[in-house]
Amino acid sequence: MGRILLIDDDQAFTEFLAGYIHGAYPLLRVDICNSPVTALNSIRAGGYDLLLIDLEMPAMDGLKLLSFATQAGMDKNRVVILSGRDADFLHDLCPMGTCLAVLNKFEARQKTVLDMIFSSLSKKTAGR
User: Fold this and answer.
1) Does a structural domain hold residue 93?
2) Rounded CA gap, 38 and 119, in Å?
3) Per-residue model confidence as pLDDT tens digits over 57-108
């Protein structure tokens, strides 16, 4: 199975997104961390094909988690930063090459990009 770590302090959002992924992409497994501090141990343990990280969380923001993950050996091109902020703001904050993608988690157009990422990971998982 393809493994995804979803880190977001919004429990309703994480449950919704994990449920969606489970239903639409059965070859993908989603682990949820609603605390960025707790997520550090999961990141350190490794084994994830994709990290989905909320930008703004209490105690530690998504950019600090991205930095920690890359220092722990995670490829930055396997990290997606999610936020409720405007896409232009996100692209200014995280220029191309910072990570795989920065997406507004509430815009329908951005969901299409997430679906492309999940679909690609699912196909790679099926080919293993």
Assistant:
1) yes
2) 28
3) 998 999 999 999 999 999 999 999 999 998 788 888 888 889 999 999 888 8
Is position 70 within any domain? yes
Angle at 17 between CA 16 and CA 19, to 5 degrees: 65
User: Domain range for residue 100?
Assistant: 2-121
Give the SS3 label for residue 27. coil
pTM of the model as a whole: 0.94
Which distant-in-sequence residues (6+ apart) come within 8 Å of 91 by Cβ? Answer: 102
CA angle, residues 76, 51, 10, in degrees to nearest 5: 135
Strands (E), 1-128: 2-7, 28-33, 50-54, 79-83, 101-104
